[in-house]
Amino acid sequence: MLAICLALIDEPSDKELFMELYHNHKLLMKSAAFRALNNRCLVEDAVQEALLTIASKIERFHGLSADQQAALITIITRNTAINSLDNIYSDVLMLKYVYGYDCRTISEMFHVSTRTIESRIYRGKKLLAKVVSEIQWQIGRKGLIFRNERDKGWMIMMLE
After folding, report:
1. How many whole angstroms separate alpha carbon 55 and alpha carbon 105?
2. Closest Cα partner for 142 from 153, 155, 131, 158?
3. Rounded CA gap, 103 and 114, in Å?
4. Judging by beta carbons within 10 Å of its beta carbon (0-12, 13-18, 19+), is residue 114 exposed, middle or buried?
5. What whole-number distance in Å separates Cα of residue 121 and Cα of residue 96?
């Protein structure tokens, strides 16, 4: 996987920065992914996806302090992990709370038990609450706002 990530990077100095970030933060990335997923089987996939994102946006890491780099890596990894769960939980939450379907109807749509849908709704709400509370914590503690604008990439803004 590292070879693929390095192939995405042109500049030798950027490749060196990527490897430095990887070696310094690989355990942090696994921890962030596990906290978001609570599933060891999915952690490696999420970390690999996050590494691809970091490699494709390596220029955004220049000029950041070590703490800022760690915070950005944590958020990229966590968001990648959460995005991997989007299909499992977000569809069910949308059908329930936006479109007003009951659990029995949703279970028929997905060909799973009603109890499975109830569990997905519970876990999805819990995950959403966790993400919101962590974002607020990041803003308060680090003085930074990190936003993932899905197609536009990452932005970093300093709070005054």
Report:
1. 42
2. 158
3. 6
4. middle
5. 8
> Please, are residues 43 and 34 in contact by the beta-carbon 8 Å criterion?
yes
Rounded Cα distance, 94 and 77, in Å: 24
Give the C-alpha separation, 112 to 101, whole Å.
15
Q: For the chain, which residues make up each domain, given as ranges?
A: 2-158
From the CB of residue 79, how many other CB atoms can be counted at a distance below 10 Å? 23
**pTM beyond 0.85, yes or no:** no
43: Cα separation from own chain's centroid? 11
Q: Are strands 153-158 and 144-149 parallel, antiparallel or unpaired?
A: antiparallel
Nearest to 36 by CA among 96, 79, 97: 79
Q: Which residue has the tokens 């709704």?
A: 121
Q: What is the pLDDT along the chain (160 residues), one digit of tens a residue?
A: 889 999 999 999 999 999 999 999 999 999 988 887 777 777 888 899 999 999 999 999 999 999 999 999 999 998 888 777 666 788 888 888 888 999 999 999 988 899 989 998 988 888 777 766 665 444 444 444 444 444 344 444 443 3
> Is residue 120 a contact partner of residue 94, using CB atoms and an 8 Å limit?
no
